Backbone:
């Protein structure tokens, strides 16, 4: 398929009708040199961008449906971490070859998530090259109501949504044995390939949570960003970390390393003043996700991970980093 045929196929598969465009605030969508959208009065525009490269952010053999789903999901997770309502997206796609079946599967994966959140693709770019997907998500937030990283205070509860560590475990199983039952099972592969962006939860938190971040590079690494921005520290109780069934049966030190350092979970990690603790049940029910208090914010810098009996645990590494040295441990993220 040639470039303009590829663009036309994407446009037909991902564009919406003129009537839907007007309803979604799109003045000009795909087809011009740039898109034009209408930002409603009394709202600020929120923008987030992520690039996913084959062999770095997803295994090379990942299905095109899942690649498209994940490229949108990780951006919607950023929207959720800001408390924003996602509205529009821009897609840049690099392909070694443009097979029609591959492109149709990619379109189906994108639509499967975009339609659930009312996200409209309004433009982008296509090019020939190594498999890489870049997506920019645009959303809306009320002025002054965006969630931030720098507001955590000593005494705040440390809360995480869903479970952590499962995606990293699936990735390890895939890398150890491509035919592994756990790595190949659709239910478990979803932890890695189809993370659930906590958009509804993110919109519950403004006005209550003092800080928020999504977990992409590992719980400790991303918590570290919050603590650095907020000039404080934190303590974590290891037994309170929520884990998926795929971690069952592992020795504690292995399970805790996955949960603390694994990454690719795309859950929300936020801090909450104790007086708002009763809201957790309401938010959990409204957004259909479990919320776990895993520790608290402290004045002393650093992160202390301990068991219920007070035993200290030091993980093997804090999380994934793209530009680490060649002799340091790393994986696909």
Residues:
């Amino acid at each position: 398929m040639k470039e303009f045929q590829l663009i036309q196929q994407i446009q037909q598969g991902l564009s919406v009708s003129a009537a839907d465009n007007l309803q979604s605030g799109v003045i000009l969508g795909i087809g011009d040199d740039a898109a034009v959208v209408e930002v409603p009065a009394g709202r600020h525009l929120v923008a987030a961008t992520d690039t996913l490269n084959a062999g770095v952010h997803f295994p090379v053999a990942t299905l095109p449906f899942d690649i498209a789903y994940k490229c949108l999901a990780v951006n919607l997770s950023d929207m959720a971490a800001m408390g924003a309502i996602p509205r529009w997206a821009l897609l840049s796609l690099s392909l070694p070859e443009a097979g029609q079946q591959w492109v149709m599967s990619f379109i189906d994966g994108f639509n499967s998530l975009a339609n659930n959140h009312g996200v409209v693709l309004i433009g982008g770019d296509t090019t020939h090259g190594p498999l890489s997907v870049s997506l920019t998500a645009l959303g809306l937030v009320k002025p002054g109501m965006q969630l931030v990283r720098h507001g955590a205070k000593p005494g705040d509860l440390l809360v995480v949504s869903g479970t952590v560590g499962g995606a990293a475990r699936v990735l390890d199983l895939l890398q150890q044995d491509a035919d592994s039952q756990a790595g190949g099972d659709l239910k478990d592969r979803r932890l890695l390939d189809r993370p659930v962006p906590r958009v509804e939860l993110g919109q519950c938190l403004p006005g209550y949570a003092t800080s928020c971040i999504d977990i992409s590079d590992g719980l400790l690494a991303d918590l570290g960003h919050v603590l650095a921005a907020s000039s404080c520290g934190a303590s974590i109780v290891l037994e309170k970390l929520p884990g998926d069934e795929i971690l069952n049966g592992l020795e504690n030190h292995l399970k805790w390393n996955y949960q603390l350092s694994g990454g690719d979970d795309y859950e929300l990690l936020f801090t909450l003043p104790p007086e708002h603790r009763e809201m957790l049940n309401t938010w959990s029910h409204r957004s259909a996700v479990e919320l776990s208090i895993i520790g608290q914010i402290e004045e002393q810098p650093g992160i202390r991970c301990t068991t219920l009996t007070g035993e200290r645990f030091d993980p093997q590494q804090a999380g994934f980093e793209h530009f680490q040295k060649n002799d340091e441990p790393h994986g696909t993220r």
Notes: The radius of gyration is 20 Å. The domain at 3-141 is CATH 3.30.1330.10 (60s Ribosomal Protein L30; Chain: A;). The chain has two domains: 3-141, 157-306.
